[in-house]
Write a structure and sequence with these properties.
- The complex is a heterodimer of chains A (48) and B (245).
- By secondary structure, chain A is mostly helical.
- Chain A contains one helix and no strands.
- In chain B, strands 1-2 form a two-stranded antiparallel ribbon.
- Chain B is globular and about 70 Å long.
- Classes of the chains: A mainly alpha (48), B mainly alpha (245).
- At the A-B interface, helix 1 of A face helix 3, helix 4 and helix 8 of B.
């Protein structure tokens, strides 16, 4: 590996980690959205 | 744990604004690291890893310190919201700690020809700090949720903070010639442009860490609020679908 390959690898590790973090947060948001919908549906049923 | 105690203080800065600032600063930092900063005479292009590696390491220390500070606030004031803030701080520190080890290892391979050198106090002590805080999660999740878990986690997070100055000053206290010392009593050992680039990168990584901290905290609080809402609704009457069902 050349020196520039190591630089690309180091910055790539940071980028990929951030990307994984964004994916995890997106999955969590999707779950929260699903749970909120379930609770809203339940509240609607209780109301009438 | 009540929702009101978790959300008792509204945050001043909106998360989207912090995230946008972090994105802009990281972009600027990359431009400075690759296009503005001059190439190092000794190490060549591999020295550019320094601009992200060192700020990430300093941010990891800051996150662990932040987690410990929030733990102290929890023990001092008994306000439960500090438990979550301490946990998220330690979590961020662990992520940035892992990145420090990964980027440092790549830089070590490029500069020294080895992925890891056990003779370096700085490296080994940082690894000890990282492993100590990694064990925090095992301890935390082995205890049922409640005040006991919050207190035990806080005490553990506080103990770990003692390792931060030891790790940070290890290279200065011991005669460690393997890991380079960029900042010593004579100031930063680099040119003005290099130092400016380093400062921009440090600011960018710090703001990025703060943005991630706030996003994660927001998610955790939403989770808690939803759980309370679910419990409140299930207490009213009919069957409530369980989480994940």
């Amino acid at each position: 590996m050349s020196q520039s390959d190591y630089v690309v690898a180091a910055y790539g590790v940071v980028f990929v980690t951030l990307l994984i973090y964004v994916v995890i947060i997106a999955a969590k948001l999707a779950r929260l959205e699903r749970e909120t919908s379930e609770l809203a549906e339940l509240a609607r049923r209780k109301r009438g | 744990m009540s929702t009101s105690s978790l959300n008792s203080r509204p945050s001043k800065l909106p998360v989207p604004a912090i995230a946008a600032t972090a994105a802009a600063l990281v972009g600027l930092a990359i431009v400075f690291a690759f296009l503005v900063a001059p190439e190092d005479a000794d190490q060549g292009i591999s020295q550019r890893i320094f601009y992200f590696h060192v700020p990430i390491a300093l941010t990891a220390y800051a996150c662990f310190g932040w987690g410990a500070w929030k733990a102290l606030r929890l023990l001092w004031t008994r306000e439960e919201r500090y438990d979550l803030e301490s946990y998220v701080g330690v979590h961020m520190g662990t992520i940035f700690g892992a990145l420090t080890l990964a980027t440092g290892s790549i830089w070590a391979k490029a500069s020294w020809g080895h992925w890891w050198v056990w003779d370096s106090n700085q490296l080994v002590l940082f690894l000890v700090l990282f492993l100590f805080y990694s064990a925090y999660f095992m301890l935390r999740f082995s205890i049922d949720e409640g005040p006991r878990r919050a207190n035990v986690s806080a005490v553990y997070a506080l103990f770990g903070v003692a390792l931060i100055p030891v790790s940070f000053f290890a290279i200065r206290l011991a005669e460690d010639f393997i890991h380079p010392t960029t900042f010593n009593r004579d100031g930063p050992q680099m040119t003005g442009t290099m130092f400016l680039t380093f400062c921009i990168c440090w600011l960018a990584i710090s703001v990025l860490a703060y943005a991630l901290y706030r996003v994660e905290l927001l998610g955790k609080r939403l989770d808690t609020n939803l759980r309370e809402l679910r419990e409140a609704l299930s207490g009213v009457g009919s069957t409530v679908p369980e989480r994940g069902s």
